[in-house]
Amino acid sequence: MTDHPVEHLRLLEAVLFASKEPLGEKKLSNYFNEDVDVKALLKTLQEDYQNRGVQLVQRGNAWAFRTAEDLAEKLSEHRANVKTLSRAAIETLAICAYHQPVTRAEIEEIRGVSLSKGTLDVLFEAGWLKPRGRRRTPGRPMTWGTTIEFLDQFGLEKIDDLPGIEELKTAGLLDARPAINAYTVRGEMELPFDHPDQPESEDDFIEEPLDENG
Amino acid sequence: MTDHPVEHLRLLEAVLFASKEPLGEKKLSNYFNEDVDVKALLKTLQEDYQNRGVQLVQRGNAWAFRTAEDLAEKLSEHRANVKTLSRAAIETLAICAYHQPVTRAEIEEIRGVSLSKGTLDVLFEAGWLKPRGRRRTPGRPMTWGTTIEFLDQFGLEKIDDLPGIEELKTAGLLDARPAINAYTVRGEMELPFDHPDQPESEDDFIEEPLDENG
Amino acid sequence: MENLIDLDKHEDDDLRPKRKGTLIIDLEGFEGPLDILLELAREQKVDLIHISILHLADQYLQWVAEARRKNLELAADYLVMAAWLAYLKSRLLLPAQASEEEPSAEEMAAALAFQLQRLEAMRNAGEALIERNSLGLRIFKRGMPETFGKLDEVSYDVTLYDLMKAYGDQMNKHVDQTLHIEPMDLYSMDMAIERLRSFIGNIPEWTMLVQFLPTELKNNLHTRSAIASTFAAALEMARDGKIKIRQSETFGHIYIQSNESRGTEHD
Q1: ipTM above 0.90, yes or no
Q2: Is A212 part of a structural domain of the chain?
Q3: The pTM of the whole model exceeds 0.90
Q4: pLDDT by residue (tens digit) across A10-40?
Q5: Four-residue CA torsion sign, C51, C53, C58, C60
Q6: Domain range holding B93?
Q7: Chains in contact with chain A (at least 3 beta-carbon pairs closer than 8 A)
Q8: Contact B81, C151 (CB under 8 A)
Q9: Under a CB-based contact definition with an 8 Å cutoff, are residues A153 and C134 in contact?
Q10: Nearest Cβ partner of B154 from C152, C163, C170?
Q11: Do A116 and A196 sit in the same domain of this protein?
């Protein structure tokens, strides 16, 4: 029961090594007294493994040991079965990742078509999407976002590491609001138009009500 | 494809980490050129890990990573016992979550089978259900609802964040066709159940002090 | 997660029309008008920021015309987009009118260009994401996870998806239950014929058909069925030569008269 940092590191290492899935910092801190800086321990451990064949990676606020990516080719016999995602599912996943928290209406607005049954299902089943609360707008629509498992699957430390996200933000392309209401996903003519050039706070804008049977 | 020993060690480390079973020396030698002394590599790797929280151990002729034995006690103090819920329990939990406060009779009516004694017990022991008072109907049946621990388990902030009927339909988890259980020419469609987004008024229930043993 | 994504091919790739050629007529594999517009916009071979919306409108209208010529069935969405683009085109070509009610044609064009850029950005982002798909392909997790014997804490291997799926399955089960067909609550044609027959020979003047509706009508649906049945009954009896029917204009009132009496007007 020593408090020596090396013992802390050993315990942390064992806990993380034993697990298949990333472990949250909160959960990891259960293994230590309150005065132990688990975050600092994690950083130290990460450095210890920096040049090894197995590395400690961060996924959101969770951590896991994973094989080093440069060894990929030599480990190819471990490759698991591959499931193919449809183009609609890939696009929907990208929209959920880049625009989160995002509502179904916004996904449909961006893609210009209604979400067909089963597109979200496959992403949900993979454990990549989770509810992110309801928006405080009429209808209180559910919003969606991505999970730790999503980060883990795509080798990302955090959402900000998504490819090109900064550029998209700068270009103003991560705005999920309707660009124009002249036509909707349902193909109804609706005048007048919302003006797209006046960004409001994310939580305040009003969703277009969509026919739920879409 | 360097032959540098460090690269060999990294590969050996990754292979052993990712393997689903202990690996024999013969199998391991497939990853290297013939002139590489795998036995010597294994010894070196074992020494590298000697004082760490994870160790390379030999089991017969096969090798595997295992957490250090001296940590077993600390690990077991915290390590969760992962249980699987029965189908009946998951269904019951889902119904409680969506229809709370709900009585046992209502759960049985929805599931179409009577609830076995253990099912509610399991959910109660997991800390996910709690009594929500008695209903003001004949027999004054007890009602059940979900707890904070339930929200934690499923990563929800509040019960309202649980995806509703419409979201389930979008996700392909619920048939999108209207839930008609009676075909009528009176022009009304009858939904079999209340929409969970519209919880019944709390006024319908009398909160009564309950003894903690449920 | 063992469900991984194939890096090399996406299942509906084969359905996508070939990008080559100037005008794509095949409808398969497209997801709505915005998808077509993006595909057409790419043919302009300029950055979407510099896209000519006027040109794009022409391309789209031409595409729709071609699709119709080939008798491809276009969903309403495609036609609504065509109508809107035609409207936008006319406004872009006409001198600007000052109006505070509507955005200018330029603003509408800019909004459409924005939508296309945004869709393209997400499409590219999706591809970039798939490029990064690594767990189980290039990066591997611990093959032999360990659990430890002594327990003072229990956790459950159940996810929100499991919970939602269980609920969805329950609800679907109910949908599949017995379908009860309730007795009809409509005014039947037999009843209408019977009622109308009781007046036959007693309608010397042209009389509005609605006056022969039953007196007790329960609700809207019942009323509508009574109107339909009475009209059908009138047609039936006119065919039998019992009565004459007259309507002087489309959607005008319908009059009937007994055939025995000497009416002078008829249709």
Answers
A1: no
A2: no
A3: no
A4: 999 999 999 999 999 988 998 888 899 999 9
A5: positive
A6: 87-204
A7: B, C
A8: yes
A9: yes
A10: C163
A11: yes
